[in-house]
Write a structure and sequence with these properties.
By secondary structure, this protein is α/β, with parallel strands linked by helices. The protein has 18 helices and 16 strands. It has a 5-stranded parallel sheet with strand order 2-1-3-4-5, sandwiched between helices. Strands 7-10-13-6-14 form a 5-stranded parallel sheet. The protein is elongated.
Length: 446
């Protein structure tokens, strides 16, 4: 069993016999009487639970607030006199920042139960964070769904072949991340990765940006400029929204793919460039070819290898995983008291169709992190409506427990890629128990 470490923060001069009793119950307790001392203990230790004896002075409370940004995933429990709850400032502090509170004199049994629950919640939070960091830190491509696992396998195969790649998918699904993943796993990983949004560059500048120009090539060309393709020599150039290229530029790009040489604008010298091209588009290039807006020979030159990035609505179980990943990634953006997503927020995210895909999810999560005034982000903070939020039906405690139990099992099975042994270990139950729970909640695996 892991050692349960506790930070007890109390005003100077307090000698609380309760500490001895907490230690006797198996806790390793570190004491601090100022925020600076507490910060040092947090930085050097493995503290997951904090117990704070609330001092009602504004200065002491502000020091406590200053401690929150460094306490990370820690869960805090407060102890205070019953009179202190009459203060609106103290009540707000408790509701926004603390997992639980106890009035003095503290009931030891109830306090130990509360501390144990806080430790369990902090441990689960850390487990999720560690799992995501180990599995998804590369390229920030987050996903445990079957379609994303298939994409990850395809990326590994494509990366080792030095041929053009065409990445297709809706806007906002993460096509550039897929391209970067291919580059980072390829033999060209030590070279540059240059990304170009063909749809964002003015038509009269795309050619000079891609191929460069010589001094005096046009008015304002005071010096030679190296183009983006040449700048990516030895590495990879990513041409996003390739379908927006004009037909004359498509001819120049086709010539480069055939000859592996470029000519700068205003120049006559052919320059050999060793670079891999990865292109992406959200439009149907086959239809564009039939319409005459995209060259058929260029299409087949680019479409040697293909990656299809799935829309978020097809990534079963990934929405919550992504939301928590970006919550951690942008943790500096949110108020310290915001700890995560409420149950209704998670339900609303799972019910939403996500027409803007991952880009929309990022925007909604970042906005909610800034605007939320509560401990847990709500569906309203995300700008999402949930059927349950407008329903008159209220879940009983047993129903809520069953719902949470089913959700936890499904999430664990997705993270373990349906490995029953690993999922049972992560859930802290036996394989027999997990099978029984799966049958109870009608959960099946492929």
């Amino acid at each position: 069993m892991s050692v349960r470490e506790l930070l007890y923060l109390h005003p100077p001069g307090v000698c609380d016999p309760l500490v001895t009793r907490i230690r006797d119950a198996g806790w390793e307790v570190s004491e601090a009487n100022v925020a600076g001392q507490a910060r040092e203990i947090i930085d050097r230790g493995n503290i997951q639970v904090g117990l704070a004896l609330i001092d009602e002075t504004p200065r002491a409370q502000q020091e406590l607030l200053d401690l929150w940004p460094v306490s990370g995933h820690m869960q805090w429990v407060a102890m205070l006199g019953s009179d202190a709850l009459q203060s609106s400032r103290v009540s707000q502090l408790i509701t926004e920042y603390f997992h639980d509170y106890h009035t003095l004199p503290a009931d030891l049994d109830r306090l130990l139960f509360s501390l144990g629950h806080a430790w369990g919640m902090a441990s689960m939070t850390r487990t999720i964070q560690d799992h995501q960091q180990v599995r998804f830190s590369q390229y920030e491509m987050v996903g445990a769904s079957p379609v994303m696992q298939e994409l990850f396998r395809a990326i590994r195969k494509v990366a080792g072949v030095d041929a053009p790649v065409l990445i297709t998918g809706e806007s906002g699904v993460g096509k550039e991340l897929a391209a970067l993943a291919v580059h980072e796993r390829s033999p060209r990983a030590q070279g540059r990765f240059v990304a170009v949004n063909c749809g964002a560059l003015p038509a009269n500048l795309i050619q000079s940006e891609l191929f460069g120009y010589e001094k005096g090539a046009f008015t304002g060309a005071a010096a030679r400029k190296i183009g983006l393709i040449e700048a990516a020599a030895g590495g990879t150039i990513f041409l996003d929204e390739i379908g927006d290229l004009s037909l004359d530029l498509q001819i120049n790009l086709l010539r480069f793919l055939q000859e592996r040489t470029i000519e700068r604008v205003g120049g006559t010298e052919k320059i050999a460039v060793d670079v891999r091209i990865i292109a992406a588009t959200h439009v149907n290039l086959e239809k564009a070819v039939s319409d005459g807006s995209f060259r058929e020979d260029l299409y087949y030159r680019l479409h040697v290898l293909n990656l299809q990035v799935p829309p978020l609505r097809d990534r079963t179980g990934d929405v919550e995983l992504l939301a928590r990943f970006f919550f951690d990634k942008f943790s500096k953006d949110h108020r310290p008291q915001v700890k995560g997503f409420g149950l209704r927020a998670v339900q609303a995210m799972n019910e939403h169709a996500w027409p803007g895909n991952v880009r929309e999810l990022i925007n909604r999560v970042r906005r909610a992190m800034v605007m939320s005034e509560k401990r847990m982000i709500s569906a309203e903070d995300l700008g999402l409506l949930t059927t349950a939020a407008h329903s008159s039906r209220i879940l009983t405690l047993d129903q809520a427990r069953a719902q949470a139990e089913k959700s936890a099992i499904q999430s664990c099975l997705q993270r373990s890629r349906e490995n029953i042994t690993r999922a049972a270990h992560d859930l802290g139950v036996s394989r027999v128990t997990l099978y029984r729970l799966m049958e109870k909640h009608a959960i099946t695996i492929s």
